[in-house]
Write a structure and sequence with these properties.
Bound molecules: guanosine-5'-monophosphate
Number of strands: 9
Order of helices and strands: HHHHHHEHEEEHEEHEHEHHEH
Strand content: 5-15%
Number of helices: 13
Mean pLDDT: 87
Shape: globular
Low-confidence stretches: none
Helix content: 40-55%
Largest sheet: 5 strands, parallel
């Protein structure tokens, strides 16, 4: 019997019940983390980083479970990798020695194609809840900071007045979008508002990254999560409303939607706001020029003042 179990046996009943409950909760949180890792919702590098934080659930993840969460790694491969990294199968991420951690990180970077840390992230993703004004901030940057490269998305929706092919979007039909998907041309894509499909062409992003040229993507939350999974070195910026009330009035203020649609949008906004914690930076969209200036400062590697 281990000394831990011995201690548990000696505990008063109430403490043992609490300890059991905590253990059940930890198992549940670990299962959830594994699911998010496997689904690409959280990057393996991020989990490794988190595991340095004492008390974080990532610290309690076993090395084998961590390796098994990678696509195309089964138990035989995981075992081989673990031995090569010289990490015992009982190790949890939080208990890795310094050299073990370094070897594991190098393995992960190699596996997912991420560069060594310390380099400036060439890719910045701006996302946020519906109606927060991402498009307006991006348009402001396009106009006032022409040196910032903005990714031009492909979309199946029709151009609006004043929008130009290749400048605001590449306008494609459903078949065209399907072709881009099939040939792996898109870095990420999503159906937005259950209507049209939008996606980021991979070529320009890769090219900019190779040249170390900062680039901005203004996409929805689903897309941001895909970028996090495939390019963990990208910097994810969450554009937040100044307040919940402000978001509500931007969402429903126009008064054009029925009660049911308003309720649905508010529910979506709540869920979307809760995802802020997945982002590296949060910028409050109090005034568009200020939010844009903060974003550009971030991309230049300066710390923006406030928000
Ligand atoms: P709009 O049709 O108003 O130009 O854009 C609608 C939504 O689509 C915005 O929330 C915008 O962030 C999102 N969006 C635009 N381009 C992309 C893209 O390439 N990928 C994803 N995932 N979303 C996009």
């Amino acid at each position: 019997m281990s000394s831990k179990q011995g201690a548990a046996q000696g505990m008063p009943d109430v403490d043992r019940v609490a300890a059991n409950r905590a253990a059940v909760e930890a198992r549940r949180a670990r299962a959830e983390l594994k699911r998010r890792l496997r689904g690409g919702e959280v990057s393996p590098l991020r989990v490794l980083e988190q595991s340095l934080v004492p008390g974080d659930i990532a610290a309690t993840l076993r090395i084998t479970d961590y390796l098994l969460s990678f696509p195309a790694i089964g138990s035989v491969k995981a075992e081989r990798i673990r031995q090569k990294l010289e990490i015992s199968d009982r190790k949890r991420l939080g208990g890795l020695g310094k050299l073990q951690r370094q070897r594991l990180e190098a393995f992960v970077r190699d596996r997912i194609g991420a560069p060594e840390s310390g380099e400036r992230p060439p890719l910045t993703v701006l996302a946020g809840p519906t109606a927060v004004g991402k498009g307006t901030v991006a348009a402001y940057i396009r106009e006032h900071y022409p040196e910032v490269r903005l990714s031009v998305s492909a979309t199946t929706r029709a151009p609006r007045p004043g929008e130009h092919e290749g400048e605001h979007y590449f306008f494609v039909d459903d078949e065209g979008f399907d072709r881009m998907l099939a040939s792996g041309d898109l870095l990420e894509w999503a159906t937005v508002h259950n209507k049209f499909r939008y996606g980021t062409p991979r070529g320009p992003v890769v090219e900019a990254a190779e040249r170390g040229e900062p680039m901005l993507l203004e996409i929805d939350l689903q897309g941001a999560r895909q970028v996090r999974a495939s390019m963990p070195e990208a910097r994810l910026v969450f554009l937040a409303p100044p307040s919940w009330d402000e978001l509500v009035s931007r969402l429903v203020g126009r008064g054009t939607e029925g009660a049911e649609e308003r309720a649905r949008r508010l529910e979506t906004a709540k869920v979307e706001l809760a995802s802020a914690s997945e982002f590296d930076e949060i910028i409050v969209n109090d005034e568009v020029p200020r939010a844009a200036a903060r974003l550009v400062a971030l991309m230049r590697g300066e710390r923006p003042e406030g928000g």
